[in-house]
Amino acid sequence: GAGVSQSPSNKVTEKGKDVELRCDPISGHTALYWYRQSLGQGLEFLIYFQGNSAPDKSGLPSDRFSAERTGGSVSTLTIQRTQQEDSAVYLCASSRGTGGYNEQFFGPGTRLTVL
Amino acid sequence: AQSVAQPEDQVNVAEGNPLTVKCTYSVSGNPYLFWYVQYPNRGLQFLLKYITGDNLVKGSYGFEAEFNKSQTSFHLKKPSALVSDSALYFCAVRWVEDSSYKLIFGSGTRLLVRP
Q1: Which of A2, A59, A93, B96 could form a disulfide with A104 if both were Cys (CB 3.0 to 4.6 A apart)?
Q2: Chunked in runs of 10, what are the mean pLDDT values of chain B (115 residues)?
Q3: Cβ contact, residue pair A91, B107, below 8 Å
Q4: What is the rounded CA–CA span in Å between residue B28 and residue A62?
Q5: Distance of CA B46 to the CA centre of its chain
Q6: To the nearest whole angstrom, how far is the Cα of A78 from the nearest Cα of chain B?
Q7: Could you report the per-residue pLDDT of B93-103, keeping only the tens digit for each?
């Protein structure tokens, strides 16, 4: 089936505006993750959803960031009052079940540019 | 603190020669280890993983990696490099004892294979 999809692929916004990034995981994958990849840096964990359990929000950098996952499938990452330091590629990933040994499958990412 | 290190920012190798991309992890329990590759403007693609059992694991595109518990390493190798292997490679770790299932990524190593 299809892989993880993300939209939009690119987003340019002005400082102070809110943005929403969307992730469609692989069908049947119960775990969903958001990561951030800043220029020249590695990947930074943001948030993790597993089924109906409370999400692990430990990686969110500030209260301007939030995410939800509706119906155990599609997820939306929202950044309020964007700042220039929020510019990065936001990657979504999904995996099967609850086993920590399951590899994560990544989407192509959303490149966010805050002017 | 839990961490994974990729000590080389870039590795250069001639086509046809063997390649090694290094990865070490901090000792903090039992690890699950992963390698991912990222081509320009693309998401991360899973290459291989170590869960348990045989220390030598084989993955996609002819890559393999060896888990060495005494040296806390999981180096990525390929016997004969191709120009098309040029990309950014990430090592990632998750600990068996960690219930959050998030991946801790290294900073990435850029592999450049010259013709």
Answers
A1: A93
A2: 88 97 86 92 89 91 94 96 96 81 89 96
A3: no
A4: 28
A5: 10
A6: 20
A7: 987 777 767 88
